[in-house]
Design brief:
heterodimer; A: four-stranded mixed β-sheet; 9 strands; B: mainly beta; four-stranded mixed β-sheet
Chain lengths: 131, 153
């Protein structure tokens, strides 16, 4: 679903064009896997838990966050190294996920998402009795 | 990482040219061509700065950093922002955890910004909210604009 080579620094149109005009940035993420879960940490500075929408639908994780502009358009900028716009990113999750128990919390501008693996694919520890 | 920025003069042609050249070089020689880059920007964190009559504002996106991880200091017209690798546990995963992606900046940083005029270091105010650091730097009396009334005889 990549439509623009560098969405982290370039503001882009969404792959499915939104009715509302505007562009988005692709948030940077860390994703790691433990025995029990897949953990996604996405950087979404300047938003709030209420403005984040997270959806998991048949293996597709969609992350969306609206960011309100913090300065007016008339601001007298001396330096402008980044732009402020909404965030959008989608992932195809390969693992079987226990969708009912997905949890997320937002802290210091980072969204932490916990996607627990479906019980069937978690490694089971079995003690084998040696005779 | 220590980065010196030229004095901020919005319309200074040399400054504009320099930034243009920097962008051009970064486009031709992206960091990834020399090795893996995990940075969102070449300079981290990115700054926005703007000016009002009586103060300067500097804003930086530092998601994952708590206020205790950031150190801000002002000397004359130089603002230094330093960040220690954050405490939110992003670097403290158990070694057997398998990373699928590692795009977030893991490093500590330091950046120095030279403001167009001196600021009153005792009245600098910094706040961190939802990963956005905002610093308000009041100008010294001498640097504030003055309105001159023209007298007519």
């Amino acid at each position: 679903m990549e439509t623009c080579a560098n969405q982290q620094t370039t503001c882009c149109e969404r792959p499915h064009e939104a009715t509302r005009e505007g562009c988005f940035y692709k948030p940077v993420v860390d994703i790691y896997e433990t025995d029990e879960a897949l953990v996604v940490q996405a950087e979404l500075p300047g938003t709030s838990p209420e403005s984040v929408s997270l959806q998991f639908d048949r293996g597709t994780l969609t992350l969306e966050a609206t960011v309100a502009p913090r300065q007016t358009e008339k601001t007298n900028y001396l330096l402008r190294e980044y732009g402020v716009a909404n965030f959008y990113r989608q992932f195809a999750v390969q693992q079987e996920i226990d969708a009912e128990h997905i949890a997320a919390h937002y802290k210091n501008g980072v969204l932490h998402i916990l996607l627990p693996k479906a019980p069937a694919i978690r490694p089971k520890k079995v003690d084998v009795r040696i005779t | 990482m220590k980065m010196m920025l030229p004095t901020l003069h919005k319309n200074d042609p040399i400054n504009l040219l320099r930034r243009e050249m920097d962008c051009l070089f970064e486009d031709f020689f992206p960091k990834s061509a020399w090795g893996p880059s995990r940075q969102r920007q070449v300079t981290y964190p990115a700054f926005n700065a703007w000016e009002k009559d009586h103060e300067y504002f500097v804003e930086a996106e530092c998601p994952g950093y708590a206020i205790g991880d950031l150190e801000i200091s002002v000397i004359g017209n130089q603002l230094t922002i330093a960040g220690k690798s954050s405490q939110d546990g992003k670097n403290q995963q158990a070694p057997n955890d398998l990373y699928h992606r590692r795009e977030r900046s893991q490093r500590s940083f330091q950046r120095v910004l030279t403001l167009p005029s001196e600021v009153d270091a005792t009245k600098v105010d910094a706040s961190l909210k939802d990963g956005v650091l905002t610093i308000k730097l009041p100008k010294t009396e001498a640097a504030k604009p003055r309105k001159i009334t023209v007298k007519s005889h």
